[in-house]
Design a protein that fits this description.
Order of helices and strands of chain B: EEEEEEEEEEE
Largest sheet of chain A: 7 strands, mixed
Structural class of chain A: mainly beta
Number of strands of chain B: 11
Number of helices of chain A: 0
Helix content of chain A: under 10%
Distance between the termini of chain A: 36 Å
Number of helices of chain B: 0
Order of helices and strands of chain A: EEEEEEEEEEE
Low-confidence stretches of chain A: none
Largest sheet of chain B: 6 strands, mixed
Radius of gyration of chain B: 14 Å
Shape of chain A: globular
Mean pLDDT of chain B: 92
Strand content of chain B: over 45%
Number of strands of chain A: 11
Largest interface: A-B, 21 and 18 residues
Oligomer: heterodimer
């Protein structure tokens, strides 16, 4: 497999701007997860999809955040009106079914100035 | 109290040493447990699952103690390439939603 890919790898934006990240999971994986990781911390769960259905959202996911997986393949994570506190690494992971190994993408590093 | 707690380290050990990390978790209903490895500015990668009876993979041994709610990772004969952050992961699984909870990670530096 080609692994999980994420785009862009780095994003620098000004406070108040909107940003969108893309994740392409491993093709046969039906579950897709988004995490956020800040320096010195472990990844924190944001949301996950089974196929195109968004099944769970963390309370960390404020109303400025929205995620989609329209055709059950790639997913997008949008942050509106970015704040400096949104600066983090945004990691996407995918798995096959409930018990499948969770494979992570390389992440998108967001810096909000 | 955090759901998953780890000593952040760093643990500085010489090559060839044996080093052990512990991780405690607060939810006694946790279903499954893992160790992930994360290199600097890279994504986490699964190192090994942790089974109730304990399990070994080469130089790595993982143990689970449900009664005391902790898991451990033992690395024997440390290599320079083992330098990384080791993340403890606990799977909360209410209603089958398999939510991974990550610890903050323990940094290991293996010194020549």
């Amino acid at each position: 497999d080609t692994g999980v890919s994420q785009d862009p790898r780095h994003k620098i934006t000004k406070r108040g701007q909107n940003v969108t990240f893309r994740c392409d999971p491993i093709s046969e994986h039906n579950r897709l997860y988004w995490y956020r990781q800040t320096l010195g911390q472990g990844p924190e769960f944001l949301t996950y999809f089974q196929n195109e259905a968004q099944l769970e959202k963390s309370r960390l996911l404020s109303d400025r955040f929205s995620a989609e997986r329209p055709k059950g393949s790639f997913s997008t994570l949008e942050i509106q009106r970015t704040e400096q506190g949104d600066s983090a690494m945004y990691l996407c992971a995918s798995s096959h079914g409930l018990a499948g190994d969770r494979r992570f993408g390389p992440g998108t590093r967001l810096t909000v100035l | 109290r955090k759901e998953v707690e780890q000593d952040p380290g760093p643990f500085n050990v010489p090559e060839g040493a044996t080093v052990a990390f512990n991780c405690t978790y607060s939810n006694s209903a946790s279903q499954s447990f893992f160790w992930y490895r994360q290199d600097c500015r890279k994504e986490p990668k699964l190192l090994m699952s942790v089974y109730s009876s304990g399990n070994e993979d080469g130089r790595f041994t993982a143990q689970l103690n449900r009664a005391s709610q902790y898991i451990s990772l033992l690395i024997r004969d440390s290599k320079l390439s083992d330098s990384a952050t080791y993340l403890c992961v606990v799977n909360k699984a209410p209603s089958g939603t398999y939510k991974y909870i990550f610890g903050t990670g323990t940094r290991l530096k293996v010194l020549a």
